[in-house]
């Protein structure tokens, strides 16, 4: 049984007050809070076990290496990845996507070649491709969403031409919560010989992921949204695509041999992991994923659907609130504005005075803001530890905002 009140006890920060009121943390789309098991893993990693990995033969180095490398298998299990050596450690999705941009796309794409994106991509899945547009003349092709915030997989596939070399697509919008049928996109793209990169930064937090059936070539995740430490993450890269890639960063650990005249690379995934990594951060991520798998991602998804439906019903009752996106299958993410002149930052400030943490701004999704015709929104993004009572607190605070700004 999924007992949210018991789960909340695992997160120390949820018992604190902000501005004299109980914290209502609804900024999970930006970064999630950490359970005690993750805090303990990080503390133990520095206090008891720390040493550099892969480099030494002494006890602590071997212990750190064992715990660090075990996380690769944990990530593979969490994503149901076909092979553990397809998991490349990164500092998060941004680094992972840049790795693909520099290591796979840059050597292969030429002037006029195309990359297909949706209009609701996060900047982390836009800016690396703009680098290629600026430096190599690559063309970015944008696919629009419908009035509900849904992305039609067929519209993505219809955008493919003989010049298309990559589709880079989000699995779940960080602004709208819209879930994209990336399996359909991957299947259709494979039939046309086009690789697909999936930004799983949001989706991996809220639903089970099965890379053995999804059909993607690249799948990026970020640890701090997955209840793990900041600076942790990974990108899954199929063996086929790994073989086509050059290294992104050069340094220790990613080499086989260095001489004055030449250098040879280590086998993947080490080929793409240069320098001293975020050892303790990744160990903390492993603890977070173990925690999630113990809860069961199906159970997490079911709880968040209940919160989503409750929040949608409550927010729909506020006829002066403009919620962006109304996908039937959206996650528990709500971006909104108020009628009148109230700016998103003003709304966020009022909510904060009542202990409610939301995000305000463009959410690293400026093309989507332009598409929606808004300068900024507030975003309430829910997680596995949020409750219906916290939805009620949000609604009450929004009613206060309406009274103040109308």
Please give the CATH class of the largest domain.
Alpha Beta
Strand order of the largest sheet: 4-10-9-8-7-5-6
Question: Please, how many domains?
Answer: 2
CATH superfamily of the largest domain: Type I PLP-dependent aspartate aminotransferase-like (Major domain)
Average pLDDT, rounded to a whole number, is 97
Report how far apart the termini are: 44 Å
Overview features:
406 residues; 15 helices; alpha/beta; Aspartate Aminotransferase, domain 1; Aspartate Aminotransferase, domain 2; 40% helix; 2 domains; 17 strands; PyrdxlP-dep_Trfase_major; seven-stranded mixed sheet; Cys_dSase_SufS
Would you write up a description of this structure?
By secondary structure, this protein is α/β, with parallel strands linked by helices. The chain folds into two domains: 4-30 and 297-405, Aspartate Aminotransferase, domain 1 (Alpha-Beta Complex), CATH 3.90.1150.10; 39-294, Aspartate Aminotransferase, domain 2 (3-Layer(aba) Sandwich). It contains 15 helices and 17 strands. The strands form five sheets. Strands 4-10-9-8-7-5-6 form a seven-stranded mixed beta sheet, sandwiched between helices. Strands 13-14-17-16 form a four-stranded antiparallel beta sheet, with helices on one face. The model has no long low-confidence stretch (mean pLDDT 97).
